[in-house]
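re: that chain from earlier
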Amino acid sequence: MEVTHLSNEGQVMIPEALRAAHQWEAGQELIAIEVGDRILLKPKKPVPQTTLDQVAGCLKYEGKPKSLEEMEDAIRQGVMEQHDRG
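^ sequence. v structure.
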């Protein structure tokens, strides 16, 4: 266990051995979570980039297929509602 200090600016130095063990580099974003009388620091993991091919179809429509005419009517209705609201 290593001791660290809280600066006047609210900064805490994470000891080098812990940073190395967790492969945390300068600029690493961390999430601070209050757990009882402790504070847990977890690395903020970026959302991985995906392609359209990877996500296409993930929100499948379960209803009856709409005709082109039904889709155009719905678009027309939406445009008119938007126009009426100003």
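The radius of gyration is 26 Å.
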